[in-house]
Design brief:
It is a single chain. The protein has a single domain, classed as Methylglyoxal synthase-like domain (Rossmann fold), CATH 3.40.50.1380. It has about 130 residues and is of the alpha/beta class. Strand 2, helix 3 (about 35-45) and strand 3 form a beta-alpha-beta unit. A 5-stranded parallel sheet has the order 3-2-1-4-5, with helices on both faces. It is globular and about 40 Å long. About 50% of the residues lie in helices and about 15% in strands. Helix 1 packs across helix 3 (about 35-45) and helix 4 (about 60-70) packs parallel to helix 5 (about 90-100). The N and C termini lie close together (about 10 Å). Bound molecules: 1,3-dihydroxyacetonephosphate (13P). 1,3-dihydroxyacetonephosphate binds near residues 9, 56, 57, 61 and 92.
Amino acid sequence: MPRVALIAHDDEKPVVVSLAREYESVLSTFDLVGTGTTGERITEETGLAVERKESGPIGGDTQIGAEVVEGDIDGIVFLRDPLTAQPHEPDITALLRLCDVHDVPMATTRTSAEYLLDGLADDAGHEG
Ligand SMILES: O=C(CO)COP(=O)(O)O
């Protein structure tokens, strides 16, 4: 079962919730992990179970980065706010870099997230 991380900055949380609703049947077949507030919102507003790390600004992105290093993550949806500076920008940059290093696919927009989730679902179907 693919393990997928869901992360969204505050102005993108409505988008990640709407994506999670639209993809609920696909996502329910994945093992989901998220940063603290994103995970909470998705858990509250959909029927999906999301393992919650710390909130991004206090280390959640870094916890997910550690899982990337361990080879535990198959894909990441990371809807970033492109217009607002984040206090934990170094952590965000590190997560992007680790995905590059370990060739873990990351989608940073809704449309790319749809392609990523469709692709992971397809792969999982072929494996199963
Ligand atoms: O800041 C984040 C990602 O960089 C997201 O953290 P939260 O999901 O806790 O808001």
